[in-house]
Specification:
Elements lengths: L1 H66 L8 E6 L2 E8 L2 H12 L6 E8 L8
Parallel strand pairs: 2-3
Antiparallel strand pairs: 1-2
């Protein structure tokens, strides 16, 4: 009987100790979690802003290419990452490549232009 009461008391003390330890740990966690959450929200919002800026620059370059007289931009694809623009796709002749790169370099916000354009030899008609 004494052993049973002693065992119950030890178990109760152990559970109380674990409960107090858990409460003290969770008291420290919210401040850390709030800082982590705020940091994650800020990172997500800056990533979202970066993606929006990339899309805006891509649209600006695509629009400039489409408005350029003498340039067939229908098969030119534009990708932008932090001001670095990549032009890919096909154009009918070599002079179109030079013109497309020149136009892209003149768009505000473009830091560099990577040229992956190719001449479509199939578009040349044989008469």
């Amino acid at each position: 009987m004494i052993q049973s009461k002693l065992l119950k008391s030890l178990l109760a003390a152990t559970f109380a100790s674990f409960a107090l330890n858990a409460v003290s740990q969770t008291a420290d966690t919210p401040a850390g979690s709030a800082a982590d959450t705020a940091s994650a929200v800020q990172d997500a919002s800056s990533a979202k802003a970066t993606r929006a800026a990339n899309r805006k620059l891509t649209r600006s370059v695509s629009t400039a290419l489409a408005r350029t007289k003498g340039l067939d931009s229908t098969r030119i694809f534009v990708k932008s990452v932090d001001g670095a623009v990549t032009l890919s796709g096909m154009v009918p002749d070599v002079s179109q490549i030079t013109l497309a790169v020149s136009v892209a370099q003149q768009v505000a916000g473009v830091k560099s232009v990577k040229n992956l354009l190719r001449v479509d030899t199939r578009s040349v008609s044989s008469t």
